[in-house]
Amino acid sequence: MKNAFKPLFAALFAFGVGFGTVPSASAADAANDALVARGAYLAKAGDCVACHSAPRGKPLAGGLPMTTPLGAIYTTNITPDPDTGIGRYTEEDFTRAVREGVAKDGHNLYPAMPYPSYAKINDEDMHALYMYFMHGVTPVKQANRESDIKWPLNMRWPLKLWNVVFLDKGVYQNKPAKDVAWNRGAYLIQGLGHCGSCHTPRGIAFQEKGLDESNNAYLTGGVLDNWFASNLTGEHNTGLGRWSEQDVAVFLKTGANPHASAFGSMTSVINNSTQNLSDADIAAMALYLKSLPASGGNGGPQYSYDPKATKVSLTRPAATDSGARVYTAFCMHCHGVDGRGFAPMLAPLAGNPNVLEKDASSLINVTLNGTEDLVIHGIPAPYPMPRYAPVLNDQQIADVLTFVRGAWNNNTAAVQPEDVAKIRKATQAAR
Ligand code: HEC
Ligand code: HEC
Ligand code: HEC
After folding, report:
1. Alpha-carbon gap, residue 43 to 91, rounded angstroms
2. How far apart are CA 380 and CA 373, in angstroms?
């Protein structure tokens, strides 16, 4: 993840019990290794590396800037180096930092660290994570960087009040009415996966509007860092209503399916986190997501594909529609006359949930800036979306996206050149 926008407030050794004898060193080591390996897996599910590593920096040594309206803050070194990292953290210190957002020395962390989600991680998993961070991560000596936020806005005590109001300290509790897989999926999505930190809209104090399915704003989509993270409820047009559980699973494993391909801040989630999870865990996450009733959406009638009118305007590109002209010249060879792309390599635009979403931030951003490569099992995507910022002006991008949002029965509102200008400016500043 590059430079994620985070608003201000968003801005032991119990192995080898033995059988009446002292366990051998090797049995103890094996149990220990298994625990460290389990912690490594959980760290992937939590995507700790995406935020706690700077571009081209050492993994987990921190230093990634996260921009806020008041200035950048930097992620910290969470390797076990005793002086600059978390080597002196006891398990209790670590648990408090991860669940409650309080560092060893007592200062409150900005909720750019997703502790409101991690609060749901259970004790057993927290223990495995701690073992991994202490024994499975190579220590790196690299001092933390002070935030660029100036006094008095850099004072952290208001975060204590924020926590009183918004932090729900409870570890995830299984719902007895639901089966094991549903509960496993809910636990991973709400907790370690912290999917809501991007996919749930934020309220007035930048808190996520809901931390689980009991709130109907939960996972209905939100903007962070100039990307709109899609609606993940069962909503027909903009959500996962037309996706099967299998479609969701394939997307999380490979970053693409017949409906869409990953781009923007989702790319790093797939590159670093979900592609590494077991099939059983991915299936559980898909099952949980597909259980969420429709919520949010664009208010339009249920989408169904209709290429007719669009085909006509595209086969006569000299026509009056300037958006159709840009589309024919720059986009059609990849996304197709029929808007269906060539899934899963080239994303369809017809009926694509992100295209149908009211908020066009993601569409503007991906057209301006393309996207970071999706890398599955070490292999980068063959035809990534190009960057058009140097080629097309704000009006042309607004025109082509307005065309795309109207074509193939997409029927979604026009995009304004001012909106393109805003995102161009914000994303260029971040480069
Ligand atoms: C979305 C970004 C993000 C993710 C994901 C994330 N962190 Fe953090 N983390 C941060 C930021 C930002 C800070 C520093 C906040 C501050 O300075 O107020 C932080 C601070 C911490 C600290 C306090 C360290 C110190 O020196 O004060 C610990 C411990 C920590 N994170 C552990 C983890 C673990 C373990 C994971 C994965 C399970 C994780 N983080 C995932 C953003 C993230
Ligand atoms: C750092 C922000 C971020 C996090 C964390 C995140 N996502 Fe996303 N996600 C996005 C963005 C932005 C999009 C829209 C772009 C795209 O479709 O890839 C997206 C898209 C998706 C889509 C495709 C939806 C569609 O209609 O195209 C799925 C499914 C998804 N995310 C699932 C998840 C799950 C499950 C998690 C937690 C394990 C998660 N995401 C965590 C940012 C995020
Ligand atoms: C070289 C092939 C190529 C060209 C040309 C191209 N795209 Fe893309 N586009 C992609 C790919 C591939 C993706 C999926 C994201 C990725 O993997 O980079 C994508 C994704 C998108 C998305 C997000 C769709 C989703 O999955 O939700 C939009 C919107 C988009 N393109 C619009 C355009 C527009 C507008 C143009 C012309 C100005 C264009 N593209 C030209 C390959 C292309």
Report:
1. 15
2. 6
Q: Mind listing the pLDDT tens digit for each residue in 53-100? A: 998 999 999 999 987 666 788 999 999 999 999 999 999 999 999 999
Same domain for 274 and 149: no
| Whether 162 contacts 207, CB under 8 Å | yes
Residue 306 placed within a domain: no
292: DSSP letter: S
- Which residue has the least CA distance to atom 23 on ligand 3? 363
Position 160 in a domain: yes
Same-domain pairing of 243 and 282: yes
d(CA 96, CA 90): 10
Rounded Cα gap, residues 366 and 346, in angstroms: 14
pTM (predicted TM-score) = 0.93
pLDDT (tens digit, 9 = 90+) per residue, 368-402? 999 888 999 999 988 889 999 999 999 999 999 99
Distance 253 CA to ligand 1 centre (A): 25
Question: Cα dist. 38→242, 275, 299, 357 in Å?
Answer: 34, 16, 44, 38
Residues of the domain holding 201:
180-290
Task: Confirm or reject: Cβ of 386 under 6 Å from ligand 3.
Answer: yes
Among the bound ligands, name the one nearest to the CA of residue 75: 1
CB 28 within 8 A of CB 15: yes
Question: Cα separations (Å) of 321 from 317, 403, 406?
Answer: 8, 8, 11
CB 365 less than 6 A from any atom of ligand 3: no
| Distance of alpha carbon 282 from alpha carbon 119, whole angstroms | 21
Q: How many domains does the chain have?
A: 2
In whole angstroms, give the CA distance from residue 39 to residue 135: 10
Most informative mutation of 120, 198, 251 for ligand 2 (most atoms within 8 A of CB) = 198
Buried b vs exposed e over 260-285: b needs ≥16 C-beta within 10 Å?
A: bbbbbbbbbbbbbbbbbbeeebbbbb
